[in-house]
Predict the 3D structure of the following.
Amino acid sequence: MAGARTSRIPEFYKKPMEERRRIVAEFAGLTEEEVKLISNFGNLDPEVADRMIENVIGAMSYPLAVAVNFLINGKDYIVPMVIEEPSVVAAASNAARVMRRDGGIRSRATEQLMIGQIQVVKLKAPYYAMALVLEHKDEIVRLANEGHESLLKAGGGARDVEARVVEGPRGPMLVVHLLVDVRDAMGANVVNSMVERVAPLIERITGGRALLRIVSNLADRRLVRSWVKVYKEDVGGEEVVDAIVDAWAFAAADPYRAVTHNKGIMNGVIAVALATAQDHRAIEAAAHAYAARDGRYKPLSVWEKDADGNLVGYLEMPMPVGVVGGAARVHPVARAALKILGVKSAAELAEVMGAVGLAQNFAALRALATEGIQRGHMELHARNLAMMAGARGELVDKVVEIMVREGKVSFSYAQELVKKLSAEGEADRGG
Ligand code: MEV
């Protein structure tokens, strides 16, 4: 059949971008308009994009916003966020506004330790092999650090070796962990190169076969802890404090709720991760595994009422982020976003992200425990409709207020109101 569609395209990656785009356009029947849209790289240099990943045909823009009002460890931050979901940025800014007392949100990152794993199979005596690995710890650490002078100079490097025998479906295997202080990098690359380097030594020591050599994304030695007190009068009184604590208790008791609770935290965390070009899958994977570390999925935060009736919140989660190397260095917008944030280290970025997660979580719980989440969403939706219907300035607020109050949020009603209120305005001005 002539022109049969196939996705089997040999050496697609070798073709110039233009040609790749043409092939895809033909395959999918894209219009000229759509092709033009795809090939608009916005603030990303096409050559940079083409080097970042494979088979690039274009770029896709997301809104870059900032959350304001953040005071973290006594320092003011304007927080860049990239996200497609309305309300998140507004909610973060509003939450941060009531969290400015007493120096604002507190946040502390632990050491920036990442774990590299080496899976050793084909062992006759795995426990004895484990003991031998631990006996040779210093030698392994020394070898891992060879060739990583700049990391060592920055105060980082491989620190320690741990080993366990793990029972798998194909029998016991030895799992060796290399603990690496990665300082200001996300660290996956350096850890991967280190575990690959030491694997032959581990084979020699154990007589087994080192199979997988790869970073672990369960970054539980690289945590951030954030905590805050929100005064009861800033939340809407002790009744609201109790309602928020009850909302948290729901998440603590029920994994179906805990996942949504944590999703709200990740709304903030991942928006900052995207703005600063972090590996957000690594952050997500670590967060959810950490939430389930006791064998049951739990919320990453805790909300309590203190002795004075105020709301106090605590968040603890892994935060594997970097400010050197990777896309954070390559993408010009990520570089600018880091400059807006003004963070000097990966630890500081982690502290900001923990604080944003906690604020985002508070905003969601407060909305849910009081008026419900839809009202805010409805207002934004109504605002969009009013603007689409031609309202500007004060008229937007009026149209929104009426539509929300009457529970009639639609484009046709917005048009009707714009027409009516504009005519009334004209009449008032004696028109
Ligand atoms: C929506 O993106 C996030 C929330 O569902 C979080 C939550 O329920 O806590 C509002």
The pocket of (R)-mevalonate is lined by residues 85, 260-261, 263-264, 267, 364-365, 368, 373 (CB under 6 Å).
